[in-house]
Amino acid sequence: MWGGRTGALLRVWGLWPAGVRGRRPLGYNAASLAGNNSPQCWNCGGPGVPKRGDGFFCPQCRALQPPDLTRDYFSLMDCNRAFGVDTAKLQNRYQQLQRLVHPDFFSQRSQTEKDFSEKHATLVNDAYKTLLAPLSRGLYLLKLHGVEIPEGTDYAMDQQFLMEIMEINEKLAEAQSEAAMKEIESIVRAKQKELSDNVSKAFEQGSLVDVDLRSHV
């Protein structure tokens, strides 16, 4: 039930290029500890931290633990798994995690912890950037629902919608004053909001098949 013109809708909303680069999985050298279901601390062997909790450090020896690569970005960034995200809350969470795991704070720690810190920081950065932008957030949500849009894929857009884009481009070319530019900006922002609302509703309903790409300006 997911699919149809999903890619076109999300790309137009974000005004991004059609190609979307994939991300390479993070690797580990320390005995593939990330993804290991064992709750034991790698350093002291004591009881580790819950996989879904925010305890990044062993409660016994305070050693930094490896990232949980099975944890999705929404959970990591303490956001509801939805297209609508509170960006202020997201930014605060990002800053909180950076204060916990940034490599600068581990310069005097063991090499293992230095490595884990770098991987934590990379994961947090990727999660933040992905959830901050509407397009990448929407594509990530689709991926979590088992739908991936291959790089370079583009879906046919509604002809009326394409005509509206052409009209906006013509207005931009003909704009001779700041007032005219502001009017065009207002039109584009209204269209973005409409498309964003459409995408959000589609995710809530569990289907993007019936989303109408046309925007009534």
UniProtKB/TrEMBL annotation:
Domain HscB tetracysteine metal binding motif span(s) in chain numbering: 39-65
Compartment(s) of residence: Cytoplasm; Mitochondrion
A molecular-function term among this protein's GO annotations: ATPase activator activity
GO BP term, pick one: [2Fe-2S] cluster assembly
Domain Co-chaperone HscB C-terminal oligomerisation, chain residue ranges per copy: 157-205
Keywords of the record: Chaperone, Cytoplasm, Metal-binding, Mitochondrion, Signal
Pfam family, one: HSCB_C
Pathway: Cofactor biosynthesis; iron-sulfur cluster biosynthesis
Superkingdom assignment: Eukaryota
Cross-referenced InterPro entries: HscB (IPR004640), HscB_4_cys (IPR040682), HscB_C_sf (IPR036386), HscB_oligo_C (IPR009073), J_dom_sf (IPR036869)
Record GO cellular component, one term: mitochondrion
Signal peptide positions on this chain: 1-22
PANTHER family xrefs: IRON-SULFUR CLUSTER CO-CHAPERONE PROTEIN HSCB (PTHR14021)
Similarity comment: Belongs to the HscB family.
Functional note: Acts as a co-chaperone in iron-sulfur cluster assembly in mitochondria. Required for incorporation of iron-sulfur clusters into SDHB, the iron-sulfur protein subunit of succinate dehydrogenase that is involved in complex II of the mitochondrial electron transport chain. Recruited to SDHB by interaction with SDHAF1 which first binds SDHB and then recruits the iron-sulfur transfer complex formed by HSC20, HSPA9 and ISCU through direct binding to HSC20. Plays an essential role in hematopoiesis.
Quaternary state and interactors: Interacts with ISCU and HSPA9 to form an iron-sulfur transfer complex. Interacts with SDHAF1 (via the first LYR motif); the interaction recruits the iron-sulfur transfer complex composed of HSC20, HSPA9 and ISCU and mediates the incorporation of iron-sulfur clusters into SDHB which also interacts with HSC20. Interacts with the cytoplasmic form of ISCU and with CIA complex member CIAO1 (via LYR motif). Homodimer. Interacts with ISCU (cytoplasmic form); this interaction stabilizes the (Fe-S) clusters on ISCU. Interacts with the CIA complex member CIAO1 (via LYR motif).
Protein name: Iron-sulfur cluster co-chaperone protein HscB
